[in-house]
Amino acid sequence: ILIDEGGNILLLRRATSSLSGRKGKWDLPGGSMDIEDLVKSPENPHEFAMKREVKEETKLEAKNFIPIFVGSGVKTDAEERKILILAICYEANVKGISPKVVSSQEHIEYRWLSKSEALSLDFGEDGGFHRSSIESLSN
Length: 139
Fold this sequence. Notes:
Layout: E1 2-3, E2 9-14, E3 26-27, H1 35-40, H2 45-58, E4 63-76, E5 82-93, E6 107-113, H3 115-119, H4 128-135
Parallel strand pairs: 1-5
Antiparallel strand pairs: 2-3, 2-6, 4-5
Protein backbone atom coordinates (compact mmCIF):
# COMPACT_ATOMS: atom_id res chain seq x y z
CA ILE A 1 0.00 0.00 0.00
CA LEU A 2 1.61 3.24 -1.13
CA ILE A 3 0.86 6.25 1.04
CA ASP A 4 1.66 9.83 0.06
CA GLU A 5 2.64 12.65 2.43
CA GLY A 6 -1.04 13.62 2.82
CA GLY A 7 -2.02 10.13 4.02
CA ASN A 8 -3.69 9.18 0.72
CA ILE A 9 -3.55 5.60 -0.58
CA LEU A 10 -2.74 4.78 -4.21
CA LEU A 11 -5.27 2.59 -6.02
CA LEU A 12 -4.85 1.32 -9.57
CA ARG A 13 -7.59 0.07 -11.90
CA ARG A 14 -6.74 -3.07 -13.86
CA ALA A 15 -6.92 -2.95 -17.64
CA THR A 16 -9.93 -4.67 -19.20
CA SER A 17 -7.58 -6.27 -21.71
CA SER A 18 -5.47 -7.81 -18.96
CA LEU A 19 -4.52 -11.48 -19.34
CA SER A 20 -4.90 -11.95 -15.60
CA GLY A 21 -8.08 -11.82 -13.54
CA ARG A 22 -10.12 -8.99 -12.05
CA LYS A 23 -10.35 -7.06 -15.33
CA GLY A 24 -11.44 -3.46 -14.77
CA LYS A 25 -11.40 -3.87 -10.98
CA TRP A 26 -9.33 -1.86 -8.50
CA ASP A 27 -5.97 -3.06 -7.29
CA LEU A 28 -3.02 -2.19 -5.08
CA PRO A 29 0.44 -1.85 -6.62
CA GLY A 30 2.34 -5.10 -6.30
CA GLY A 31 3.21 -8.38 -7.83
CA SER A 32 5.31 -11.47 -7.45
CA MET A 33 8.81 -11.98 -6.22
CA ASP A 34 10.92 -13.94 -8.66
CA ILE A 35 14.28 -15.71 -8.53
CA GLU A 36 16.09 -12.67 -9.98
CA ASP A 37 15.07 -10.63 -6.92
CA LEU A 38 16.83 -13.18 -4.73
CA VAL A 39 19.91 -13.17 -6.97
CA LYS A 40 20.13 -9.37 -7.19
CA SER A 41 19.48 -8.77 -3.48
CA PRO A 42 20.03 -11.94 -1.43
CA GLU A 43 20.10 -9.96 1.84
CA ASN A 44 16.66 -8.36 1.28
CA PRO A 45 14.82 -9.86 -1.72
CA HIS A 46 11.32 -8.91 -0.48
CA GLU A 47 12.08 -5.19 -0.33
CA PHE A 48 13.97 -5.37 -3.63
CA ALA A 49 10.97 -7.06 -5.29
CA MET A 50 8.53 -4.52 -3.85
CA LYS A 51 10.59 -1.56 -5.03
CA ARG A 52 10.87 -3.16 -8.48
CA GLU A 53 7.13 -3.85 -8.75
CA VAL A 54 6.19 -0.33 -7.60
CA LYS A 55 8.61 1.19 -10.10
CA GLU A 56 7.34 -1.04 -12.95
CA GLU A 57 3.67 -0.27 -12.26
CA THR A 58 3.83 3.40 -11.25
CA LYS A 59 7.32 4.84 -11.91
CA LEU A 60 7.31 5.96 -8.24
CA GLU A 61 10.10 5.44 -5.72
CA ALA A 62 8.83 3.78 -2.53
CA LYS A 63 10.58 3.60 0.84
CA ASN A 64 10.03 2.61 4.49
CA PHE A 65 8.42 -0.79 3.89
CA ILE A 66 6.54 -2.15 6.91
CA PRO A 67 4.68 -5.50 6.77
CA ILE A 68 1.06 -5.00 7.84
CA PHE A 69 -0.93 -8.02 6.64
CA VAL A 70 -0.40 -11.63 5.53
CA GLY A 71 -2.96 -13.67 3.63
CA SER A 72 -3.08 -16.92 1.71
CA GLY A 73 -5.31 -18.61 -0.79
CA VAL A 74 -5.47 -20.95 -3.74
CA LYS A 75 -5.53 -19.94 -7.40
CA THR A 76 -6.07 -22.11 -10.46
CA ASP A 77 -3.65 -21.55 -13.33
CA ALA A 78 -4.37 -21.82 -17.08
CA GLU A 79 -3.68 -25.56 -16.95
CA GLU A 80 -6.20 -26.04 -14.11
CA ARG A 81 -3.47 -26.66 -11.53
CA LYS A 82 -4.01 -25.42 -7.98
CA ILE A 83 -1.37 -22.96 -6.79
CA LEU A 84 -0.95 -21.87 -3.17
CA ILE A 85 -0.52 -18.12 -2.86
CA LEU A 86 1.13 -16.47 0.14
CA ALA A 87 0.63 -12.72 -0.02
CA ILE A 88 2.34 -10.20 2.23
CA CYS A 89 1.11 -6.63 2.21
CA TYR A 90 3.51 -3.85 3.09
CA GLU A 91 2.86 -0.21 3.80
CA ALA A 92 5.34 2.13 2.07
CA ASN A 93 5.76 5.86 1.55
CA VAL A 94 6.22 8.05 -1.50
CA LYS A 95 7.21 11.72 -1.69
CA GLY A 96 4.66 14.45 -2.30
CA ILE A 97 0.89 14.69 -2.16
CA SER A 98 -0.92 12.75 -4.87
CA PRO A 99 2.19 12.41 -7.06
CA LYS A 100 1.66 11.71 -10.75
CA VAL A 101 1.63 8.02 -11.60
CA VAL A 102 2.83 6.64 -14.93
CA SER A 103 0.83 3.44 -15.24
CA SER A 104 2.08 0.26 -16.82
CA GLN A 105 0.02 -1.63 -19.39
CA GLU A 106 -1.55 -3.57 -16.52
CA HIS A 107 -3.56 -0.55 -15.33
CA ILE A 108 -5.74 2.10 -16.98
CA GLU A 109 -6.46 4.52 -14.15
CA TYR A 110 -5.16 5.57 -10.75
CA ARG A 111 -6.55 7.44 -7.76
CA TRP A 112 -5.11 8.73 -4.50
CA LEU A 113 -7.86 8.18 -1.91
CA SER A 114 -8.53 8.20 1.81
CA LYS A 115 -8.81 4.85 3.58
CA SER A 116 -12.63 5.00 3.65
CA GLU A 117 -12.81 5.98 -0.03
CA ALA A 118 -10.43 3.14 -0.94
CA LEU A 119 -12.60 0.63 0.91
CA SER A 120 -15.64 1.69 -1.16
CA LEU A 121 -14.04 0.53 -4.44
CA ASP A 122 -14.76 -2.74 -6.25
CA PHE A 123 -11.73 -5.04 -6.01
CA GLY A 124 -13.48 -7.98 -7.65
CA GLU A 125 -14.20 -11.46 -6.42
CA ASP A 126 -10.79 -12.09 -4.83
CA GLY A 127 -10.48 -8.59 -3.40
CA GLY A 128 -10.61 -9.75 0.22
CA PHE A 129 -6.85 -9.50 0.53
CA HIS A 130 -6.96 -5.90 -0.70
CA ARG A 131 -9.71 -4.90 1.73
CA SER A 132 -8.06 -6.65 4.69
CA SER A 133 -4.75 -4.98 3.89
CA ILE A 134 -6.31 -1.52 3.71
CA GLU A 135 -8.26 -2.15 6.92
CA SER A 136 -4.95 -3.04 8.62
CA LEU A 137 -3.65 0.51 8.13
CA SER A 138 -3.49 2.52 11.33
CA ASN A 139 -4.78 5.79 9.80
